[in-house]
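Hey,

Quick one before I head out. I ran the complex with flavin mononucleotide overnight. Inputs first:
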Amino acid sequence: MATPTPNRPLIVGDPSGPSPPYPLRMEGRVISGFGRGSKELGIPTANLPVDDTQTPWISSTPSGVYFGWAALRLPADHPDALPTESNPTTTTTSTTTPQDGQPPPPPPSPPTKPLRQGANGFQIYPMVMSIGYNPFYKNTVRSAEVHILHRFQSDFYGAELRLLVLGFVREEKDYSSLDALVADIWFDCDVAKRSLARKGWAPSGVGVVVGVPKGDNGGSDEGEKVVVVSDGTLDGEWLVRPSELVDGDEGKKD
Ligand SMILES: Cc1cc2nc3c(=O)[nH]c(=O)nc-3n(C[C@H](O)[C@H](O)[C@H](O)COP(=O)(O)O)c2cc1C
Ligand SMILES: Nc1ncnc2c1ncn2[C@@H]1O[C@H](COP(=O)(O)OP(=O)(O)O)[C@@H](O)[C@H]1O
């Protein structure tokens, strides 16, 4: 049994971008898990079916924590669904929020071109995920569960979720307490945010917002420093290609 992992790096991977076997791809509709994420941990995790006919790499990949980008296709009536591409409202540019004791930053210069936030109904978010047996809970079935680094106003069971997995953070562990597990997951979130906030790790042609905590010691203060990585160099087209799933078959939670 373990305490939170000490002295681990806050950034994973080379600045130029992911290296083989990454990126790895996984997709499906969000299914129910054991209902612990929100209630016990305060960290909701969207589960995807673990099926090696659909995701050939999943059975051989080491259990552990991974990070990358999630593309989520929310139903139009979901409170977090964005306007459609035909009616874009969002333009972005690189900016940060003020740091304590520092003068406010100059207003952002106008963007040279509007950056799309996604396409074909998909919205892109940074994510951190766990693949494995959750030794703290002693699961007997392997699960794949994703914490999207965004505060959603409501659930999205049944929504189509695509994952571009870009790197490995750490092995999964048992813990001496729930607090120790939660502390390590928050640190994983910080590692994902910082690692993705680099041009070589951000999708090209898409504006993405990554909240990075202000301090250097991790923490869960999402959004204290907001980094907008405009137009990275990573090929993210797979994330936003048109959906092949039939709507109306979302298998929503009762
Ligand atoms: C980034 C991340 C790291 C995780 N690391 C571990 C871990 O090291 N050990 C473990 O037992 N569970 C780990 N989990 C899994 C949580 O225990 C799991 O999300 C929780 O059991 C909720 O499951 P549920 O979706 O079935 O409710 C991790 C989850 C996430 C999102
Ligand atoms: N930031 C988020 N990341 C992942 N899922 C979220 C997030 N916010 C809300 N959810 C919703 O919460 C659900 C997961 O909650 P959780 O308590 O872990 O239950 P379950 O065990 O059924 O997965 C997801 O399926 C999704 O609908």
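The pocket of adenosine-5'-diphosphate (ligand 2) is lined by residues 30, 32-39, 44-47, 146-148, 150, 152, 155-157 (CB under 6 Å).

Talk tomorrow,
K.
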